[in-house]
Amino acid sequence: MSHGTLHVTVVEGRNLKDEDTLGQNDAFVELYLDDDYKQRTGTVKDTNSPAWNEQFSFNLQKGQDNLHIKVYDADEVGKDAIGSAKVCLKKLREAGGRSDEWVKLPAHFGLGSHGEIHLILSLS
Fold first, then answer.
1. Which terminus of the chain has fewer Cβ atoms in its 10 Å neighbourhood, N or C?
2. Strand pairing partners for 78?
3. DSSP at 69
């Protein structure tokens, strides 16, 4: 049984940690509420400040309290992790069900940052 819909717009990234030896990142974002259903943006090549402007929708189920965000650098073979974060949906509900924010991708142990992702979130 669905508990509403989460709408996510992945607007852009900035200051993404460079994972490439030559050039800049070929970045994409993976979004999910649980490991069974993941959605992802397209890959934006050769930039550490990509613009995606892509929209996604998730049917919310009971117990899904966090939106997980993982940012990767696409390589010829595989991918390198740039950073990850999560957005608490309970806080989103408490804030009126809408948010337009830059989400930090914390470095190990929260020291420093691997960049930020601009998200627009809404619940319906």
1. N
2. none
3. E
Q: Which of 34, 22, 118, 5 is nearest to 71 (CA)?
A: 118
Q: How many domains does the chain have?
A: 1
Structure-block tokens of residue 16 = 């993404």
For the entire predicted model, the pTM comes to 0.92
18 near 50, Cβ under 8 Å? no
32-68 per-position pLDDT tens digit: 999 889 999 999 999 999 999 999 999 999 889 999 9
| Contact predicate 64/33, CB 8 Å | yes
CATH of the domain at 27: 2.60.40.150
Q: Which two tokens stand for residue 4?
A: 């509403």
